[in-house]
Amino acid sequence: MSAKLGAKVRGIRRREGLTQVQLAERLGISPSYLNLIEHNRRPLPAPLLIKLAQLFQLDLQAFAAEDDQELTSSLLEAFGDPVFEPYELTSQEVQELVTQTPNVARAVLALYGAFRRSHLLDTDQPIDEEGAPPSPSEEVSDLIQRHGNFFPELEDGAEALWRTARLQTKNMQHDLVEYLRAVHGFDVQIVPEQELSNRVRRIDRANQKIHLSEVLAPRSINFQLAHVVGLFEQSEALDRLCGDQLLTSDESRRLGRVALANYFAGAVLMPYDAFFSASEELRCDVELLGHRFRTSFEQVCHRLTTLRRPGKEGVPLHLLRVDIAGNVSKRFSASGFRFARFGGSCPRWNEHAAFLTPGMIRTQISQMPDGSYYFSVARVLRTSRGGFKGSHALYAIGIGCELQHAGRLVYADGVDLDELELAVPIGTSCPSCPRSTCDQRAFPASFKPMRIDEDVRGTSFYVVDTDGNG
Fold first, then answer.
1. Distance (Å, rounded) from C-alpha 274 to C-alpha 152?
2. Cβ-count burial of 277 within 10 angstroms (0-12 exposed, 13-18 middle, 19+ buried)?
3. 396: which of 21, 351, 371, 387 fits an S-S bond (Cβ 3.0–4.6 Å)?
4. Comparing 39 with 320, which gets the higher pLDDT?
5. Would you give the DSSP letter of residue 367?
6. CA separation, residue 385 to residues 162, 299, 327, 371, 388 (Å)
7. Edge-to-edge strands of the sheet including 187-191?
8. How many angstroms separate the CA atoms of 276 and 218, rounded?
9. Burial profile 399-424: b = 16 or more Cβ within 10 angstroms, e = fewer
10. CA–CA separation, 215 vs 430, rounded Å?
């Protein structure tokens, strides 16, 4: 086990009102050995960890170092809000809060989230004493993150559909249309765009018809058909998964069902075993995988992040979708990469730079403030709804992994992965990033008091020079 759990053990002991002698007696060890554990001079062995969890009915997830890092990162970002400036908190104080009283740290983060959401409401509307409800999209993202973006029950359902419907990739639309008609009694109709207004799909349950917009590409039609099958046949599984306490509202649960039905659709179009083998063979070449499975660039990127089956695990990737204004609409991380939960993201991210070269693949080696290195791939995509007068949106899709896994991606060919001095220094967001000399700062760094000298101007207004002049 990690040697950095001493503060957690000490925090649990103090919370329970025990002395070192009393806790050591319960654990069956000497007080001196417990003292060494609490001061990180000895690791916490697995048997003691389990015994500690049993004694105090603790969730072993509470000891996950990765959770600590994510919680610390989120708190640092939250404390970057100007409302906390008078308190001059330090990063060490935040780390101690997380390690010693993690539940208090989570409560502070939840309170700050409620504070931010309440300020987004109409100020003329009353706010109840419990604060504004959590954002459904945030809750669903957290649910997906908790499951590691891998849902075995839905994977099994997709594989069962392949056997039952005898699906073939080259005939996917025909096979799914026939299956919906034969098994569920629903006819599929492609209808003019104006009949569906701004919608691309509508299920008419009363007349047992599925209407799909004529503007959909064939791969999108397949995806929507598979999604409908998921809603019809995986409803119980969707309800079970969305019964998680993370989803606190009916809106969150409905959104969760949609997100998980999308997961099922991806698993149908790109069946696990075949897609995993192809991703290994093609080294995650997104465009070639899209051609092989008749799917889009974004669909392939999503599917690559779900390859977490034990014994057949793909590259641990993170995924990000961001629009031209910097709004993050999708995020998931199996790589350890940290995303901003509050406010804007780092302007140095590869996904932002991709807007300079729409349609082209961009790669980047980057370094986070904690010293970890990542390799990322990003591309800008254009969506189109309707004809000449229809809406057209640009957004960037990015996937990435820790640098040690970059060799498994075809995009790393020709890139010198050892040239770490060329890595782009990035952060989660400006307020939480400690890089005081970054010339792309939009906000001052948290935990670093600004030193303003009217006679000195840095490369950015918030840059603090090494001489301490401001």
1. 16
2. exposed
3. 351
4. 320
5. E
6. 31, 18, 21, 43, 9
7. 187-191, 209-213, 201-204
8. 23
9. bbbbbebbebbebbeebeeeeeeebe
10. 40
d(CA 257, CA 353): 33
| Rounded Cα gap, residues 268 and 169, in angstroms | 10
Helix axes 297-304 and 250-269, enclosed angle (nearest 10)? 100
Instruction: Name beta bridge partners: 209.
Output: 187, 204
Concatenating the DSSP letter of every residue in 432-470 gives: T---TT-TT-SSPPTTS-----TT---SSTT---TTS--
Tokens (6 digits) for 213:
């917009």
Q: At 355, list the tokens.
A: 């807007």
Please give the angle made by the CA atoms of 304, 322 and 133, to the nearest 5 degrees.
100
Find tokens 């051609």 and name the residue.
Answer: 291
Say which residues have a Cβ less than 8 Å from residue 133's Cβ, sequence separation at least 6.
117, 248, 249
- Specify burial of residue 124 (Cβ count, 10 A radius: 0-12, 13-18, 19+): exposed
DSSP 337: -
60, 147, 202, 322 from 234: Cα distances, Å: 30, 17, 18, 30
- Per-residue pLDDT of 47-72, as tens digits, reads 788 888 888 877 655 555 555 666 77
Instruction: Give the tens place of pLDDT for each residue, 271-319.
Output: 999 999 999 999 999 999 999 999 999 999 999 999 999 999 999 999 9
Cβ-proximal residues to 404 (8 Å cutoff; 6+ apart), any chain: none
Phi-psi region of 375 (alpha: psi -120 to 50; beta: other; left: phi over 0): beta
Q: Residue type at 80?
A: G
